[in-house]
Structure formats: C-alpha cells, structure tokens
Amino acid sequence: MSQNPSTGLPVEDIDMIATWLVADRTRWLAGIVAGLFSGVLALGVAGVLSYINELEFLYPLKLMATPILGLEATDYSAGFFTILTGFIFFESMCALWGFVYAHFVKTNSLGSLLAMGAVWGFFSWVFEWNLFLHSVKPILYAGVPASAALLVCMVYGVSMSSVAFFDRSLR
Length: 171
Description:
The chain has about 170 residues and is an all-alpha fold. It has eight helices and two strands. A hairpin with a 6-residue loop joins strand 1 (about 1-5) and strand 2 (about 10).
C-alpha cells in the first residue's frame, strides 16, 4: 500500500492481474454483442466510403471474404454466398475482439470506455488491418487508403463503448 503525496493517507493499489483473472460471463457476452454491433457500424461506414469511391456498397464484405474465397470474392459478379462469407468472417473477428475488450476493460464509465475505444480502434488499425489483413494479397493489392481503414477501425473501437449498455442490459 502506498501513500497519497498530497494528503499522506494510504492509497490501495489496484491489482489489475487479479481483475483479469475473474471470469465474468455476463461481461464477456456483453463484449461479444458490443463487438457485433460495432462491426455492423464499421461495415456501414466502410460501405459508404466504398460507394463514395465509386465501388459497390458491399465491396468491404467482398474484401473480407478474400482470406477464405480468394481474389474471385471481389469480382462484381460475386453473389450472396461471397457477401455472407465476408460478413461472417468480419463479424466473427469483431465478436472475438469484443470479448477480449470486455474482459480487459472492466469499467462502465463512458469517458474511460471512449478513451479505451479510441486506443482499441488504433490497435485494430495497426494489428488487424496493417499486419493481419495485409498478409492476404488481394486485400493488400486492393489499395484501400490507410486513412479510410483508420476511420473504419476508429468507428469500431469507439463504438465498443456500447459494452456498458449491453453489460447493464444483460445484468
């Protein structure tokens, strides 16, 4: 236990590892739902950006199907199966990262969640977009501007603050 330098009173340190070892299944479910919700919002922004750049509104879903289906997924003639595959792949990643976010971010304070969401969005842009997804050649060669990908990832990250709403709703 340490002391507050201005008051001299004892201050108890927070044991972050102990909080991370607690299995809060309701929080995990809230994180999964928040991840799915945030993924849909991010896909909406990605679709609008695609449409503005004279591509199909559903092009981001086709692009997300390329790790599974290959380059043919981005063809204009690609149909419902391709779009569904991209949606399932993208939303699965969003749900997984939503679970992780909810497990490690224990607060329901909106300010803290928004700040952590911005960090999470940036983390998603660096690791998911620039490292993981760019290892898939069709995604790399699609030439998606880094700024557009950053905006989509930031929408995803900041909207992860919805975990507080889902956590309260599920309890």
